[in-house]
Design brief:
The chain has helices at 6-23, 49-58, 65-81, 99-110, 116-127, 152-164, 170-182, 197-203, 207-214, 238-248, 255-268, 290-308; strands at 32-35, 44-46, 131-132, 135-141, 148-150, 218-219, 222-223, 281-283, 285-288. It is of the alpha+beta class. The protein has a single domain (6-317), classed as Glycosyltransferase (Alpha/alpha barrel), CATH 1.50.10.20. The strands form three sheets. It has a four-stranded antiparallel β-sheet with strand order 2-1-9-8. The chain has a three-stranded antiparallel β-sheet with strand order 3-4-5. Helix 6 runs antiparallel to helix 7 (170-182) and helix 11 (255-268) runs antiparallel to helix 12 (290-308). It starts with 5 loop residues before the first helix and ends in a 16-residue tail after the last helix.
Length: 324
Amino acid sequence: MSEVNEARVSGSIRHAVDYLSNTQTAGGEFRTSWSRLVDMSDSTYVESPFITGLIFLALSTFRDARMAVLRRRGIAYLLTKRRANSFFSFLNEGIDCDLDNICLLNWVIQSVDHRREHYRALAEKIARFPRREGLYETWMRAGANHENDTDPCVSVNTLRFLCHNGIKCDETIAALREMLRSGTYLRGTLYYESGYALPYLIFTLTPELRGALLKVPEKGATCARRPPWLSRAGKLSIIDKAFRLFILSSCDDEVAECDELAGELLADEMAGGGWPNWGAFRAFNYWGSAQLTTAFVAQALDRYRATRFRTHSSFGEVNHPASN
């Protein structure tokens, strides 16, 4: 395990931004690949606007000049993939309506597009989409005559966009609370591979939404204590470590484990900067990108740095990158 100190952590965060700056395409995309193996060996390129958008969610509070350039290029790319009705599709294909893409990517774009009435109307339309036991449906289904499946992570990204645009989502909040209590997400959800994906996404919500879901006392940008349902399950992947560090660095009583996780992530850094590709999603195959892994790790290390060393950080509360 690498030595953990502020200088080492800050250096790795800088390396992450360097890596992302050097690997974003001229058109603004962060390249995605799929593989039959979770370690993403023998992978094949595929275009996924969603993964580019998810990178910007992870980096939404980084406010340096280079990040502003990355974000501007990335949003320009996303706009070329958005349809006239403001919808997106999974892997940029015409598969069933994909709320994960629609809601997350419009949330990212809305940070620079201030047509409030347009996004409110889109949110009202989405709020009328079918739900099952409070959760919004995914694009996945067993066949043409079957109902679409649900995934709680999709509902978190949907909730983010709807609530940002003033839509009340009490039924979905209640359903997500029940999912957290059930613990079924700890083996991953329908197509989010990590068992920490659901709590991670919840911790990227505004403090008000996060508090409503967790029912754990808030203390500024952190929780006063670890949520009782956040157990540790088995060997952790790089993405598991990043998610867990991000979550636990948002709690006040987890210094020892945070130091351990940060040290492991520092040791995982590639020689040229950045962190290796690992499967983040499982939809028939595994999907991911080294840039996505790197963004998750940079976000986690930045939150860890801010809470562990109590120094100035590029990290602010995850809310909406409108000020960038």
